[in-house]
Amino acid sequence: MFDSLRENFELILVILFIISALCYALYRLTFYDEIRKDLASNKEQLTQLNRRERKALRYYITSSYINSPIRKAVFFFADLFWVLLFVVVVRSFLFEPFIIPSSSMKPGLQISDIVLVNKFEKGLRLPVTNQRLTEGEAVKRGDVMVFKYPKDPKISFIKRVIGLPGDKVYYDNRKMTINGQDIRLRKLSTESDETDVETSKGIAPEPVEYVVFEEDLLGYSHTMRYAKKFSSSYLAREWVVPEGKYLVMGDNRDNSKDGRFFGFLDDDLLIGRATRIAFNFDCLRGKGKCDRFFKKIQ
Length: 298
Prior knowledge:
Elements: H1 5-29, H2 32-41, H3 43-47, H4 51-65, H5 69-79, H6 81-94, E1 95-99, E2 113-118, E3 144-148, E4 156-163, E5 168-172, E6 175-178, E7 181-182, E8 184-199, E9 202-216, E10 221-227, E11 237-240, E12 245-249, H7 259-262, E13 265-266, E14 270-280, H8 281-284, E15 295-296
Antiparallel strand pairs: 1-2, 2-14, 3-4, 3-14, 4-12, 5-6, 5-11, 6-7, 8-9, 9-10, 12-13, 14-15
Helix pairs in contact: 1-5, 1-6, 2-4
């Protein structure tokens, strides 16, 4: 789950881009030619000046035409156009960074990991509305997807795709089958991790022992974990995934609010596939985890 500020930032960014685009067009249609002609007429003088003096003369000529509050506002936003265009294109249609705030995708993804989300591979979508523009590649079983939380689309979640449209998935406290085939687990290691658990004094962090497994999702293998001693709150259940929807789960299977809780994930809520870990904020704070730079997400 990610901070809901993402939604507000995206909306503000798009609004600023639209304003800058309109101001850029207005600037080009009005006093841009006047400034360009004045600079051209002073070309010979500019070539005789050093870099600092040229910059000062260009500023003086330009500012002489920005002589009203309206022109100042137009020029200010027009000057931001190319920067905002670059940011909007990269963030909306290529890659977007997300922060991992919880342990639901451990052991692969750690708290404070900054992951890069590919936003064109599974189809381009419009910013803010998330309306699909292109089809892209089909979502595959095992893909780690970032999506809008079905119960509150202003919040973003990250989980692994377990069930595809048409799949029959059965889950009963660590035993899972997909289309009648058992999902095999191979024990890799054990680890201890602080986890919020219910105690006599309420919810409190306590050390919990976990077993790390390699899970084979019918041809796609990845690491995940179960707690050694943990009473699952999820009842045995079977899902038949409808068309246009997916069943997703966290890799920290005993500590993840996922499709077992909120149901199927609609394709319209997908944002993109998490492909790499850029870095972890704890490394910048001197708290370790400096071995995660540009690590591929399995």
